[in-house]
Amino acid sequence: MKTTQTPVVVLGVIGSDCHCVGNQILDAFFSERGYRVVNLGVMVSQEEFIHAAIESAAVAILVSSLYGHAEIDCTGFRQRCRERGLDDILLYIGGNLVVGKLPRAAIEQKFAALGFDRVFLAGDDLEIAAECLKSDLARRARRERRRIA
Amino acid sequence: MTVTHPHDTQAPDHRQGRDGQVPRRISAAAFLQQREAVLRTWPTGAGVCLEEAIEYQRAIPLAKRFALAMRDVAARRGMLVQPRAGVALIDEHVRLLKYLETDGEADLLPTTIDAYTRQNRYAEAALGIEKSITAGTSLLNGFPAVNHGVEGCRRVTESVTKPVQVRHGTPDARLLAEISLAGGFTSFEGGGISYNIPYAKNVPLRKSLADWQYVDRLCGWYEEHGVPINREPFGPLTGTLVPPCISHAVGIIEGMLALEQGVKSITLGYGQGGSIAQDVAALLTLRSLGAEYFRAAGFSDFELTTVFHQWMGGFPENESRALAVISWGALVACLAGADKILVKTPHEAMGVPSKEANAQGLRATRQIINMMADQGGLATDAVERERVILEREVRCLLGRVWELGRGDVCEGVAAAFEAGALDVPFAPSGQCRGKLLPMRDHEGCIRIFSPGLVPLDHELLAWHRERLEERARAEGRRVSFQMVTDDIYAISKGRLVGRPR
User: Fold this and answer.
1) d(Cα B306, Cα B290) in Å, to the nearest integer?
2) Active-site amino acid positions of A
3) Touching check for A41 and chain B: CB below 8 Å?
4) Which pLDDT does position B22 carry in this prediction?
5) Do B160 and B254 fall within a single domain?
6) Closest approach of chain A CAs to the CA of B428, in angstroms?
7) Domain limits of chain A?
8) In chain B, which stretches have pLDDT less than 50?
9) Residue B103 lies in a domain
10) Does B71 participate in catalysis according to the annotation?
């Protein structure tokens, strides 16, 4: 039943960050691609993301951060998701994720270690993010079917 | 549309002081009473003693006073160069500022405040300081001045030779102002609108306006005791296709509110829009309308200067391209005769820059300013056309704010935002309607695509629409939201107007 419904994604800018232009564009972008977007806007806490994901039975939480504090803001996020029963929700993050300039691989590693399934940098094509989301969801659906079988 | 000077040329005299007493100035008793509560909001507040702070400020050498630097540069028609910069730890921050004043040759220094402090989340800032010590690098995007306290701030301001300004984005900056001014900073950026609407999710405007009246009263208090503090409303707002009439209206209002509390040195800001004609016209208009409205409100004893912000929207990732955007802004600031320029860095697309990148932006800007020093401004028909339009627009907006406020500017502002008469595009705040949508015309000027509820007259709105239809015809598509999105990303992708792919 669940897989035939419109998939829900929770969207927001984490922490004390108030960059909101990209947030409005992401909302329009994912809505256009058939997702129901629960957009929490700017300055969203981990708890607010998790609460919204539970309420809306979301398949993914899409976190934005543009101001460099992402590492501090995201510490313990995956752990807290598990504690609240969101065992395998997809966690994506994108934006300007660190203070200063770091190689992409180092940033990806840092946020993979924090439990994010996908890491994007500002300037990455949104189409690629959409394709990742589609394939990650398809893989999970296959896994789910195998489990039931 | 025939471009004519508006019939209503005089700003309405809405608040002439009686018996030399400025109405709405916070009384000394009310101010001192509120101070006690403000200083108790974080332990470092206890370190502020106003009498001692005034003595301390009086001893600051003239060359390090922001207001004097602005007065001086205006008199000699030069332009001062200022970066943005701030890191978590004091020693690191001092090293950064020293580098910017020596290698970067900055005329004025900043201290950019971190995002936790801006939201009064001092406990999180403390955690950021701790983690930065452990990591050996700044994990905060600015200097947490409240946590470092008066002594920490003094270590910073005493370590450099140039005037230093606090730059931030704080809806309630009362404690930050108390600590940083006692800490030797001589200029303070922000205002009750410009540091709320673009920087907060839902702080009531009446609250932020009142909190900024307190900040202005504090600056005015220093001024009354012989210590001029420069105040700079934040011009660019969301930095994303903001029509100049909106940012001008906000800047003039915030300047007036500061004067009301006793501030005398005001620097009004404008963020580069992209069209050279529109940008030059905007800066000239900001200066002339600002002075006109301040005088009409009964103020005569003020020093009004201007600041031009290099492009505040999305930057190209490529550093050479980014330096081109930076230099282009420097050129326009020169053509417009700005008193100060706020400089970007080639790392802008990536976020917080290295000190070397910061100095690169400063040097590119300096080179342009020096080459432009002996050349005049720009006076073309297009500049004149934009001036006339913009003046008329600002009068429409401010006229409605005064009308709604009936003599109380703060009340007028709050009512205007509620009614959508003032609106800021792409703002995160629920306090503004967000119905106003801008778009570039065929020549790159920022026009109004959807006016929402802003009270521009019909003739003006029809003119905006016609300019956009002209672009749409040229691009062979209809005027649509897609064009707005294209415009937002255009400069980062290498051009001004977001043409179809």
Assistant:
1) 10
2) 17, 19
3) yes
4) 60
5) yes
6) 6
7) 2-148
8) 1-21
9) yes
10) no
Which chain A residues are within 8 Å of B114, Cβ to Cβ? 69
Q: Domain check: are B185 and B80 in the same one?
A: yes
Which residue bears the tokens 């003006």?
A: B460
CATH of the domain at B476: 3.90.970.10
- Reported ipTM exceeds the 0.90 cut: no
CATH number given to A2-148: 3.40.50.280
Domain stops at, among B344, B372, B400: B372
- Who among A17, A21, A71 is closest to B488 (CB)? A21
Inter-chain residue contact B121 with A67, CB threshold 8 Å: no
pTM score: 0.92
Instruction: Report yes or no: A66 at the B interface, CB cutoff 8 Å.
Output: yes
Inside any domain, residue B144: yes
pLDDT of B24-42, one tens digit each? 899 999 999 999 999 999 9
Q: Are residues B119 and B211 in the same domain?
A: yes
Write the Ramachandran bin of B128: left for phi over 0, alpha for psi from -120 to 50, otherwise beta: alpha
| Predicted local confidence at residue B16, as pLDDT | 42
The whole-angstrom separation of Cα B405 and Cα B387 is: 27
* Alpha-carbon distance A55 to nearest alpha carbon in chain B (angstroms): 22
Q: What span, in angstroms and rounded, lies between the C-alpha atoms of B93 and A108? A: 28
Domain range enclosing B307: 30-372
Q: What distance in Å separates residue A86's CA from the closest CA in chain B?
A: 26
Q: Is B148 on the interface with A (CB under 8 A)?
A: no
> What is the count of structural domains for chain B?
2
